[in-house]
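The methods section describes the discrete structure representation at length, but only in general terms. What matters is that the chain and its backbone geometry are given together, residue for residue. Nothing conveys this as quickly as seeing an actual entry. For illustration, here is how one protein appears when written out as sequence plus structure tokens:
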Amino acid sequence: MQSFIEFIIRFKSYISFAALVVISLSLISMSNVNQIGGFRTLVIATFGWVQEGFSWIPNPAAIRNENNALRELNLQLSNEVTRMRDAVVENKALRSLLQLKKNSDNEIIAVSIVGITKVQLRNYLIIDKGKSNGIETGMSLRTDAGIVGTVIGASDNYAIVETIMNRDVNISAKSLRSDYKGIIVWEGGQYLLMKDVLQSYDVKKGDIIVTSDFSNKYPVAVPIGKVVDTGEEEGHLFLKVVVKPFVNFETLEEAFVIKSLPDTERIELIRELDEKLLLRKMEARRKDKLIFKKKKKKKENKNKAESQSDKKGKKK
């Protein structure tokens, strides 16, 4: 029954046309004008009544076309909503960056993150500006939230940044509340660790950690993160201080390069000190090897002498 109704609805125009042709031919054959007029009225009324009776039945083809049109409209509206949400988030981030630029004491350069590189426990970012924009190796990268990293290389139009989420990075930091200092390191995961914090130090959960004035690599008093946990390390005199960074590196898109370079005299002094310490370590290792060789040779000679003495005793 349903198939018959769909057949009538789909081809109703053709069926109506065929019926009208048959009726017309019948009327023409009657040749009586009065009868034709009355019969025509009756046919039109009957056809209208039948059509009105079937008007409640939906048209599958029309419904299908309407559904397709609604799907396309929903897709367009969904895309517009997504773009509006992205625009709101981007607008909020740009407002924060503009506020930072307004309040910054140093000259800063707005940059965009165009690439991320991860090598084992080392994380790097690529930014869309370089030497042609005044960016040099040694400058720091930050957002309105806090420190991101340091520029370690630059070309004319791009630069690569070593982030603080890097096992080779050591940051001299302090608690903003108590002014106690330590070294910020990263050993993997989403959090940083603050080292060299004695158990007697006043560092608590919730403390804000910033770069200290002992740091030559990063500007002073730039936010790093917040202490989320502290605990005593077994067998050590130091606290285990866990710091959550303020910067969300997973969603980082915009940042500022601080046009400030570290003090080259301090860098050179530290480099010379590192070289001297390295030479001392190498010299100490060389001496240890010589002592070890002498002890080994002395022991071999002693064993050899004892072996010869045992042989002589056996011969006697």
